[in-house]
Amino acid sequence: MDLLPNSAPLATKLRNTLIQYHSTGDSEWRVAKKTKDATVWRKPSEEFSGYLYKAQGVVEDVTNRIVDHIRPGPYRLDWDSLMTTMDIMETFEENCCVMRYTTAGQLWNIIAPREFVDFSYTTSYEDGLLTCGISLDYGEVRPNFVRGFNHPCGWFCVPLKDYPNHSLLTGYIQTELRGMLPQSAVDTAMSSTLANFYSDLKKALKT
């Protein structure tokens, strides 16, 4: 198992990687799923053999409150149906932490529960916020879980210019679930999970 990385250079590299994804031209993305709450696109990942997913939708709330519901903290477990446990393992300066969390089985348990250990970083971006993360090989893997790996992921949340109480939320997710899984099952699960993320988040913000 690796030692914990130096948080400052990792945070800077992660932020720059996410901004690079955010500037990828529209022509490189292919629509994977569309719902009333969000559109999900995908393109081949440069990090591993799966896809980098992009999700986008307008959420009716202010940026800070939305990001507080997404980043590691007490809100996330309350509303994210996929996340079953979450522990903050280490806390660094400047909105950085290492968290361990587990996810529920998906697709009638074709995808068994997973465990992740992620470095998480939240920072300002334009008039809003960026909260991003990447998995670390850190800590013992718990029994009954497969350890998954998140390549650079993140959520950009910026207020809409004409409607400051609404925010544009754009996510970039590339999760390597690991274990023996048919890639088609993973792709189906990812698109649906991201679309559901928006509808669940909107419900949580209204309560």
UniProtKB/TrEMBL annotation:
Spell out the InterPro entries in the cross-references: StarD4 (IPR042555), START-like_dom_sf (IPR023393), START_lipid-bd_dom (IPR002913)
From the UniProt record, which GO molecular function terms apply?
cholesterol binding; cholesterol transfer activity
> Membrane-crossing residues?
none
This entry carries the following GO cellular component terms, namely: cytosol; endoplasmic reticulum
**GO annotation (BP), single:** cholesterol import
Query: Domain START spans what residues?
Result: 10-207
- Origin superkingdom: Eukaryota
> What is the protein name for this chain?
STAR4 protein
Q: What is the lineage of its organism?
A: Eukaryota, Metazoa, Chordata, Craniata, Vertebrata
Gene behind the chain: Stard4
